[in-house]
């Protein structure tokens, strides 16, 4: 049942916001936006939410709730654990920009029930289930203060802004291209007893498990992705890549 205090044009804007968010939401599922409903705490009980407030042409709050399967998939990315906030931020931005130029705050990860309970206390809060068949897999929820009015001028502006050329929507891993990740190089490893560690002093030599001249490992978030030669670049060490490591062959 839709929220009785929300007008048809406002529901249309909520649906447009959901479509915009869905275009950049990182999921391999074929999701579609269902009919908007009143925001409630249990619209998607099993999942994680990212909530962010925005201001500018419109003022309000936007919430993206993803199922636990997507949250787990981000943790098990081939490049290591990915931050949920960074992963869904393009979806938050796309939804908020339907209402015009806005500034979005960094966003906060919450349990889905907590985020939706908080949003549901706001007047005219709307949720749009993102479904696969009849199964709710994610949710886009909004609360604006106030919502755009029904006057033709206001609605036309909102529609133009939601369809304007300034928003370039990206899908898949493209949306994560600006996420910074820790990159490190490893020359080798060894194991030492505690008494050996305690006896270390300046000048001591620790022998590693790799022969001289062997390639160094390049790791992203602790996961091996490449090997290469150690070089010097402007008095700093660097790695010249000689091999890209395929997933599943890290230990070969």
Automatic annotation (TrEMBL):
One Pfam family from the record: FliMN_C
Gene Ontology BP, a term: chemotaxis
Top-level taxon in the UniProt lineage: Bacteria
UniProt keyword terms in alphabetical order: Cell membrane, Chemotaxis, Flagellar rotation, Membrane
Topology relative to the membrane: Peripheral membrane protein
Signal peptide (from-to): none
InterPro entries registered for this protein in UniProt: FliN (IPR012826), FliN-like_C (IPR001543), FliN/MopA/SpaO (IPR051469), FliN_T3SS_HrcQb (IPR001172), SpoA-like_sf (IPR036429)
Primary localisation category: membrane
Cellular component aspect of the GO annotation: bacterial-type flagellum basal body; plasma membrane
Gene3D superfamilies referenced in this protein's UniProt entry, alphabetically: SpoA-like
GO MF annotations, alphabetized: cytoskeletal motor activity
Compartment(s) where it occurs, according to its Swiss-Prot or TrEMBL record: Cell membrane
Residue span(s) of domain Flagellar motor switch protein FliN-like C-terminal: 175-245
SUPFAM superfamilies, per the entry: Surface presentation of antigens (SPOA)
Coiled coil: none
NCBIfam families, alphabetized: fliN
Family: Belongs to the FliN/MopA/SpaO family.
Protein's name according to its UniProt entry: Flagellar motor switch protein FliN-like C-terminal domain-containing protein
């Amino acid at each position: 049942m839709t929220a009785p205090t929300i007008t048809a044009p406002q529901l249309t804007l909520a649906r447009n916001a959901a479509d915009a968010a869905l275009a950049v939401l990182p999921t391999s599922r074929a999701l579609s936006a269902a009919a908007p409903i009143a925001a409630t705490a249990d619209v998607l009980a099993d999942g994680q939410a990212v909530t962010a407030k925005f201001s500018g042409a419109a003022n309000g709050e936007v919430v993206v709730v993803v199922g636990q399967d997507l949250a787990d998939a981000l943790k098990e990315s081939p490049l290591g654990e990915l931050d949920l906030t960074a992963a869904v931020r393009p979806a938050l931005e796309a939804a908020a920009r339907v209402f015009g130029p806005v500034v979005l705050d960094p966003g906060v990860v919450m349990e889905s029930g907590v985020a939706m309970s908080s949003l549901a206390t706001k007047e005219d809060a709307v949720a749009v289930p993102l479904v696969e068949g009849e199964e709710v897999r994610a949710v886009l929820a909004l609360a604006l203060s106030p919502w755009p009015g029904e006057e033709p001028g206001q609605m036309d502006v909102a529609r133009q802004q939601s369809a304007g050329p300034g928003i370039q929507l990206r899908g898949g891993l493209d949306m994560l291209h600006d996420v910074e990740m820790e990159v490190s190089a490893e020359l080798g490893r060894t194991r030492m007893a505690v008494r050996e560690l305690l006896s270390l002093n300046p000048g001591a030599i620790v022998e590693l498990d790799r022969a001289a001249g062997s390639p160094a490992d390049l790791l992203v978030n602790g996961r091996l992705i490449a090997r290469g030669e150690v070089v010097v670049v402007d008095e700093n060490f660097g790695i010249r890549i000689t091999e890209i490591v395929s997933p599943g062959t890290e230990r070969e």
